[in-house]
Amino acid sequence: MKNQLDDFLELFCLHVSKTIEKSTSWVVNRVIPYIQQNYYDPNLSLEQIGEQFNVHPVYVSKVFKDHVGKGVLDYINNLRIEHSKLLLEEKKNATIEQIAELVGYQNVRTFSRVFKKYTNISPGKYRNESL
Questions:
Q1: CATH number, domain containing residue 87
Q2: For the whole prediction, is pTM greater than 0.70?
């Protein structure tokens, strides 16, 4: 009887684990593509993503971090900075302000601060060094 109960509990735990995994995999399947398609939206935020998927922002945050290994805002900022680096190299005539707007920052100071945080260099210096 004990062995049967152990087997049952093992199967039950496996089932619960798979159910939880399925219920949280929407982050990888839907939230990440949504962020990648909307990273340039200055209103993109944890709250906005929660509203989009009808889920509480705290839940989105926890599940995202568990699956991706970094927070939503960190993921968004990293994506924006990577795209801004490409734009800084390709759009030589665009101002830093224009680049900031193209990747979702409404304030050039915020863009510059975040850019430097992720690259250890200012956007202007990055552009000059990539020439």
A1: 1.10.10.60
A2: yes
